[in-house]
Amino acid sequence: MRDAATAMLNVIYKHLGEKTTKFLDGVKPATMQLIEKEFEKITPYAKGEFQSSRSVKGEAAPAAGGGGGGAAAAEEPDALAELENAMPRADISKQLNAKLIKMFTETDWKLKVKGCEAV
């Protein structure tokens, strides 16, 4: 579990850089040292460097014009596509207001949890 959490933090750090440490204010000092050692190994993306991509499968794949993998690609979906399909999508843009965003910056972890639950 610790390795998975560290891997997730590494990905977040790669995208956000030093801003990531602001979210980790409640972490024990010994654990924070381990996390910072991992962060030293990572070069964050420069602004505009990361280009997101989305894989399409099923009926939408031919319409997207991507692929070229043929039937073999349709039989063996990649892990990322499976992960994207595992959770339903919902538009939460109307729920994201200043009050909710402020809950994520609170030092009290109980308020952070309430913000997460609200989302």
Task: Write a brief caption for the model.
This protein has 119 residues and is mainly α. It is built from seven helices and no strands.
Structure description:
This protein is mainly alpha-helical and 119 residues long. Among the domains are: 1-43; 91-119, no CATH class. It has helices spanning 2-16, 29-40, 60-64, 70-75, 79-86, 98-105, 109-118. Helix 6 packs antiparallel against helix 7. The chain is globular and about 50 Å long.
Mean pLDDT: 76
Based on secondary structure, the structural category is mainly alpha
**Distinct helical segment count:** 7
Q: How many E-type strands? A: 0
Largest β sheet strand count, sense and barrel closure: none
N- and C-termini, Cα separation:
24 Å
C-alpha-based Rg, rounded: 19 Å
Share in β-strands: under 5%
Unreliable residue stretches:
66-76
Shape summary: globular
- Tell me the series of helices and strands, N- to C-terminal: HHHHHHH
| Helix percentage range | 40-55%
Q: Top keywords for this entry?
A:
119 residues; 54% helix; mainly alpha
SSE map:
Layout: H1 2-16, H2 29-40, H3 60-64, H4 70-75, H5 79-86, H6 98-105, H7 109-118
Helix pairs in contact: 6-7
